[in-house]
Amino acid sequence: MTNQNVMVSDAKSGVGVAITVSMSNSSLFSSMVPKPPATPGRFIIPRKKPLKKLDTGGVGGARVNAWVDLMRASSPTHIKSTASLPENEDQNSWMIHHPSALHMFEQIINASKGKQIVMFLDYDGTLSPIVEDPDQAFMSNEMRAAVRDVARYFPTAIVTGRCRDKVYKFVKLAELYYAGSHGMDIKGPAKGRRYIKGDQRVLFQAASEFLPMIEEVYKILLEKTKSTPGAKVENNKFCVSVHFRCVDEKKWAALADQVKLVLNEFPKLRLSQGRKVLEIRPTIKWDKGKALEFLLESLGYANSNDVFPVYIGDDRTDEDAFKVLRNRGQGFGILVSKVPKETSASYSLQEPSEVMNFLRRLVECKRLSLRGQ
Ligand SMILES: [Mg+2]
């Protein structure tokens, strides 16, 4: 029993399904509603491939190579990297598939008219820059002001892999919802407007019974990874993160193997991959997409057509939320990325400063519409 605890959300597998999308032209930017943008051509979307199928059980060989490929694919270090894309996909065609949410702002606003916008924001790489030391991933005062303003007009949630308390220390806004540990730990606003009736500040903790196990694996990984310079282990309460953004790429394979060997002793935990981070989580089926659905339900929008959820994130783990929005046919996802990536998001923004501009424009637009009433 060495493999049951390993899963990744996506893989550069080479196994794919071909789909054809309808033709469009340069009028795309003036006529599109915020749905998956259509563009000419035929492209390949790789199928999901659970990592356990790549795992042959021993140390080294194909298994390690597969891990390192995945680590590279999810952690591009060069702007021009297209490691996770089909060969014929380039930056320009990717931007046609996933145009800038700033360029498409008017269309987005038109599509949201008459509906309640609910804002979901990832933290690292979305509101704060990705930095070498995750403890130093501070958001700027300008970004904090933009998020605070958004929360004045729209229910707003931070959805993060980090533990709720830790992200709160960065964001410092009591008027938001916080879904920490990939949504396994959800808390409502401590002040300001509450969209959910009653005093339900702690709304949900999906995996309380796993807390002692998480603590144990955290301590073991802390010890084991001491031999890998730059590796940083973080206890995020309901999950453990092993950051490798400061680890020499030559040591990634050994680090991944080390983490997997520890995980073999914990079949109720699984391993997934984020942006320059390996994450250990309970095997329960809970992710950022489930957190999004839970919050929409808590806010009273479970079966409503009058809601327009917007989810902004930069990470592989945000894809679960993007997929939920696609399946619901409501709102849209925005991927924060400078490089083309396979994504279920409809739009893109390049970096946190663009996220801030998008949030500001949303607030400005709302203020203008309120004045006009
Ligand atoms: Mg992120």
TrEMBL record:
- Give the GO molecular function terms: trehalose-phosphatase activity
Q: Which parts of the chain span the membrane according to its record?
A: none
Q: In which pathway does it act?
A: Glycan biosynthesis; trehalose biosynthesis
Tell me the enzyme class: hydrolase
GO biological process terms on file: trehalose biosynthetic process
Q: Which NCBIfam families match?
A: HAD-SF-IIB, T6PP
Task: Return the similarity comment.
Answer: Belongs to the trehalose phosphatase family.
Q: State its role.
A: Removes the phosphate from trehalose 6-phosphate to produce free trehalose. Trehalose accumulation in plant may improve abiotic stress tolerance.
Q: What is this protein called?
A: Trehalose 6-phosphate phosphatase
Identify the species of origin: Liquidambar formosana (Formosan gum)
Q: What is the lineage of its organism?
A: Eukaryota, Viridiplantae, Streptophyta, Embryophyta, Tracheophyta
